Description:
By secondary structure, the chain is α/β, with parallel strands linked by helices. Helix content is 41%, strand content 14%. It folds into two domains: 18-38 and 269-372, Aspartate Aminotransferase, domain 1; 43-266, Type I PLP-dependent aspartate aminotransferase-like (Major domain) (Aspartate Aminotransferase, domain 2, 3-Layer(aba) Sandwich). The chain has helices at 18-25, 43-52, 65-75, 88-99, 112-120, 141-145, 168-181, 198-201, 204-208, 238-246, 255-266, 268-291, 313-318, 345-362, 365-372; strands at residues 30-31, 82-85, 103-108, 124-129, 152-156, 184-188, 213-218, 231-234, 295-296, 303-307, 322-323, 325-326, 337-341. The relative contact order is 0.17.
Amino acid sequence: MEDRKPRSHRSYGHGGDVWTARERWGSNVIDFSANTNPLGMPEAVRAAAARALSACDRYPDPHCRELVEAIARHHDIASEAVLCGNGAADLIWRLVATVRPRAMLLTAPTFSEYGAAARFYGARVCSHALDVSCGFVLDEGFLAAIDDDIDLVFLCNPNNPTGRTVPVELMGRIVERCRAAGALLAVDECFLGFVADGAERTLVQQAAAGESVVVLRAFTKLYGMAGLRLGYLVCGDADLAERVYAAGPPWSVSTPAQAAGVAALADTAFVERTRELIAAERARLVAGLGALGCAVVPGEANYLLVRSPLEGFAERVAAHGVIVRDCGNYEGLPKGYVRVAVRTPEENDRLLQACTGALKAGGTEEDSRSWRDR
């Protein structure tokens, strides 16, 4: 493919920037850097958003009443515990702006917006390193890191970019430890809908009960609604929820996004089809990438963290028309990792072909064997 010189842009630091990729690699690239639903947006959701355009001459409902009620019914919680926002990232920043922690605890690696928001508001960010030799699974050492100086603890479950979930028993102990230390626990469950037993792992009920826990969720990933921007916070502390609401503009959720969210929650068959597809294709990608000499973290979501036997793997794969997420800017992650989305069978074939081409062009089987043995 033609390697074009990209334009200069402000730092972005996430996946899904297909526009910049096209500037460099051309318009035919396929995007595996964004971990959204490979089935795209459900047709009923698309239709609901389109119908809502006729009402866009008016301001959207600032309290998202219909959507909030739909979310509350979906989780069987009180509607007063639900606050909608312009995607989970909007609510992450609002929450940090509201709590203004002196010190915040994260894992490393994890989603960068937690730390970015904390640093912007002057917090000290404490990182608990996840051990690569243990497959990046959170361990009990995290409990000791929740000391009396920590005001806010952020966990991503399953974690981004590793795809690993927090063990259920350990999560319960983390909740108790945060309560004892007087720290607020914020759990980002944006990818939990892709996990087979996600309904048993969620903390939504505890968050709605006001047990020093808040939960963040989004329609972005599971329902393929990244461009519509819709997320919600579950928080049973009425005072905290009111302050988080006041920390941003009152019209953060558009009318089409609100209508799309209501329609999405009604389409349970779509979620089941998604889980079946992801489970089958994830296993196939793990086997295929492993056969190419890559080390694959056994993630449980709709993406995989992969270490290639060659340096500059993301660039090499992009030259074959596939964009993956270079994880070089994730704190606490050794060099050489990329994140790949799990997509449709045809698209995943293309990913494996691009990886095969990149590895054949850049190294030998002896290189792969020696790297795997390290």
